[in-house]
């Protein structure tokens, strides 16, 4: 249980080279030992002793005692990483505490949601992956990126990884699962008629994690696009929305092919229409932006 311990105590436990080496050694040993389907391996005291540079067994025993309960779990079979141990050791191994290498500006596909120009550029700005419009000079999209994400990819693959990541996050958020900490998100649909957003979609879904305080705000149409009915509809029309970056949806909203509208109040209900050619899928969302029913429309204009 960590509930009674101050965060500074938790981090102070790691201000020691031997303890960081122990966590690293457990991760490396598990990586070496893991067999398919066996789950996380547990390491015996002697196996850790063989892998860590520590004076004697009583010193190791002391450090293991300090780490156990917070960063390590201990069973009769040995030691393995706890949730906090996993998070911290992967963070250390991937060196995600460093600064990402510089990237861009690189031209990317898609149009500006504000001015419609086909003039988007991706770059890293203050460790953030940003898409900017070079025509109206506004920021079109921005998301956090990890140094390891940048380090292991060339530019095209990096942009692709940002798209996949944002699509994965958006799908989790749609299911009210915080991508950062796993807690349940609270969700609210807010009308922003006076905003700079195109009239076609003037609602924003605000998803907030009350636990880790992370916030995710997206236009209402984008929060519906990852519903299976929409994924299937687009797939049948040759578009894999799960491989698209959110900024690549801007043209649909800008051109008014994707629209949202409030169709009922008390309780509030919203209709999102996603069109492709003459076909469309309609999704009805409740006040928590949960899709409650869907329908397909063939030849909507006819
Ligand atoms: Zn623009
Ligand atoms: Zn969270």
From TrEMBL:
<protein>
    <submittedName>
        <fullName>ArsR family transcriptional regulator</fullName>
    </submittedName>
</protein>
<dbReference type="Pfam" id="PF24042">
    <property type="entry name" value="DUF7351"/>
</dbReference>
<dbReference type="InterPro" id="IPR055775">
    <property type="entry name" value="DUF7351"/>
</dbReference>
<dbReference type="InterPro" id="IPR055771">
    <property type="entry name" value="DUF7347"/>
</dbReference>
<feature type="domain" description="DUF7347">
    <location>
        <begin position="7"/>
        <end position="92"/>
    </location>
</feature>
<feature type="domain" description="DUF7351">
    <location>
        <begin position="109"/>
        <end position="291"/>
    </location>
</feature>
<keyword id="KW-0614">Plasmid</keyword>
<dbReference type="Pfam" id="PF24038">
    <property type="entry name" value="DUF7347"/>
</dbReference>
């Amino acid at each position: 249980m960590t509930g009674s311990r101050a965060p500074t105590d938790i981090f102070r436990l790691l201000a020691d080279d031997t303890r960081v080496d122990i966590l690293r050694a457990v991760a490396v040993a598990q990586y070496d030992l893991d067999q398919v389907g066996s789950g996380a391996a547990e390491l015996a005291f002697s196996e850790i002793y063989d892998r860590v540079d520590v004076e004697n067994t009583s010193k190791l025993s002391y450090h293991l005692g300090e780490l156990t309960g917070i960063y390590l779990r201990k069973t009769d079979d040995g030691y393995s990483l706890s949730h906090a141990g996993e998070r911290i050791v992967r963070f250390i191994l991937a060196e995600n505490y460093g600064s990402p290498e510089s990237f861009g500006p690189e031209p990317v596909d898609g149009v500006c949601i504000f001015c419609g120009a086909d003039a988007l550029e991706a770059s890293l700005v203050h460790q953030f992956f940003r898409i900017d419009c070079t025509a109206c000079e506004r920021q079109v999209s921005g998301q956090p990126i990890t140094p390891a994400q940048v380090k292991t990819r060339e530019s095209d693959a990096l942009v692709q990884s940002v798209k996949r990541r944002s699509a994965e996050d958006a799908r989790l958020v749609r299911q009210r699962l915080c991508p950062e900490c796993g807690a349940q998100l609270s969700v609210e649909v807010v009308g922003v008629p006076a905003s700079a957003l195109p009239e076609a979609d003037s609602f924003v879904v605000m998803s907030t994690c009350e636990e880790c305080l992370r916030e995710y705000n997206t236009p209402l149409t984008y929060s519906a696009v990852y519903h299976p009915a929409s994924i299937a509809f687009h797939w049948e029309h040759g578009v894999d929305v799960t491989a698209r970056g959110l900024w690549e949806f801007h043209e649909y909203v800008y051109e008014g092919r994707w629209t949202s509208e409030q169709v009922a109040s008390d309780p509030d209900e919203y209709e999102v229409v996603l069109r492709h050619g003459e076909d469309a899928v309609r999704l009805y969302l409740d006040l928590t932006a949960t899709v409650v029913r869907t329908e397909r429309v063939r030849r909507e204009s006819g």
